[in-house]
Write a structure and sequence with these properties.
homodimer; about 150 residues; mainly alpha; two-stranded antiparallel sheet; 2 strands; elongated; DNA-binding
Chain lengths: ~150, ~150
DNA sequence: CTACAATCGGACATCACTATCCTGTAGATG
DNA sequence: CATCTACAGGATAGTGATGTCCGATTGTAG
């Protein structure tokens, strides 16, 4: 019913980056502070997202992370396949190693349509869409209230 | 996308017990062997299910666990609320401590209908229904094929 | 070139879940 | 009562996800 911390951080960070002006790298430190998550841990996650081609990173002054070109339309499913692993959409609810339509667990047929709906929702939600809805101010990206006024584009 | 081991074992064990003749206690050892799960760990889980009123337990000879009267119609949701905790249906996908309709995370409104579908499915699935479908032989309750030879010397 | 800022990445620490061990206790049987 | 059996439950260990630390490396600016 809930994602792993790693996935949560990844999604939050990516949405936050997507709310920032395009092309301008965002500091890991700033993202961590904004989201109220451990910065060293977040850095590892962002590095992974870099290796998987979602982000660009820049060292030195004016460094930071930014969304790679064209990655604003990345879906949540693509993100979760990275953070939860490629078996994210495959694994059996009861943990059976083999659970196909032929050799199904008792929940397989009940779960199938639900899974389909989840995947549809995750495929449909893109980073730029989510970033837009955050920028309307109607949604919260993190628990910690923003102590400083974030820049509006 | 997948339940905790504890929940998996609980659901599997309860379905298995529900497939056995009513009123006759089933040995923890037999359940563990049938499911291919560690028996000592399963015992803890079954004890929890006893305390929560789903199971009766009997010590000594002819002992074991059986479904409490009327508990054959228990839904999966009731089971998971025990094994995953009462916040199972409440928690935010992004892990926010507060995420209501008023203070929503960016995924809240997308997730709501999906969550509704999940809960409907879990509420609808009862132990006796699942036990019945297992008894048809079309579904597997565990990975390990039941060769059913207790080759003890 | 030099100094500094920021990521990179390996090593280590922590915590919750998972799993095991062992002793105690209760029930059944003769 | 004696004894076997099976659950009860506290203590303990393994494991993977999570979180922290610190030095190495790379890029920018002066």
């Amino acid at each position: 019913m809930v994602l792993s911390r790693t996935s949560q951080y990844a999604v939050q960070a990516l949405i936050y980056i997507a709310t920032q002006p395009r092309g301008e790298p965002v500091l890991n430190r700033d993202i961590a502070e904004r989201l109220g998550v451990p910065s060293a841990y977040l850095a590892k996650i962002l590095q992974t997202l870099c290796k998987q081609g979602l982000l660009d990173s820049f060292r030195g002054r004016l460094g930071g992370f930014r969304l790679k070109d064209g990655m604003h339309s990345t879906s949540l499913l693509q993100v979760l396949l990275i953070t939860e692993g490629p078996q994210f959409t495959e694994s059996c609810v009861l943990g059976l190693k083999v659970c196909s339509d032929e050799t199904a667990c008792p929940l397989h047929n009940e779960w199938a349509p639900v899974k389909k709906k989840i995947i549809a929702m995750l495929t449909q939600s893109t980073l730029e869409d989510l970033a837009k809805s955050v920028l309307t101010g109607k949604y919260r990206l993190a628990d910690i209230p923003v102590s400083f006024v974030s820049a509006l584009p």
